[in-house]
Amino acid sequence: MARIVSIGSALQDIYLIDRDDFGSFEYNNKSMFKSLEIGSKYDIDKLDFFIGGGGTNTAVTFAKSGHEAIYLGNIAHDPAGEAILKKLDEEGIDTSYISYPPKGKTGVSIILLDSKTGERTVLTFRGASSKFNNLKPKDLEYISPDWLYMTTLRGDMGSILSFLEKAHELGVKTMFNPGVLELKNSKQLLGLLRDVDILLLNKREASQLVPGTLLQELLERLKNYCKTVLITDGSMGGIATNGEKTYRFGIYEDVKIVDTTGAGDAFGSGFLASYAAGKSFRESLIFASANSTSVVQKRGAKNGIISIDEKLHPMPIQLLK
Q: pTM score, two decimals?
């Protein structure tokens, strides 16, 4: 198995779950929660506490599949930080490279979830996960990982470049799933992709980075910057290439969606968990889809994560070339 470092946010996710008061409706072609009147009080049906954040979500997938998982990120010495450490310790994840910024608190997300429809709205206080410039790329020298998996660093292009360059210098392979703030710096982001081995985006994100509307044309343009590209498209599946083979794939199975939190993290980390274990490109796409499908069937970003030992059934996947 491989040694895999996950870099990204660590958050405590607090779920406010209700069946009636968050009722959704369509407005201007967007799904909206109905108004909560200022000054009023509402009774919530259920409250749940989970651990989230792209850095910890991906680390848990790697650990569950038997890899040596190391989490690199920021938390604070507070109850939310203690909850995150406890969860990572339970999963057997190396937390010795976590940093504790002297000011601030651990990040927290409040998730308003309509249990009837599965619709959600997320209010996030980033806290210690709002900045990453205190993290040290030199730590990769001590960790000696096989892979570096990077989620959003909140648009800190300098830190992203430093980690990618250090990884390249050490011969560490990299997978990158950029976020909204990285995509706003599209020209700079495209320049960074020379040091990325695997790029993960959804269709909307891909269209922000390169021109195009169809999955195949987006893929053709992106592979000029990165050899291996994965583009997901929700219920439509996705498309992926490793520079030699290109696959168009559907969803793993049609299931009732309970909560989409962490679905993208589950797909990306699921792919790498399988690929780093020596599975084929095609097999890894199937496992990625299965992991994501399992996650959306349960509340919380980590509760549905499966391992590569899971017995999988066939799914729609077509070799294009």
A: 0.95
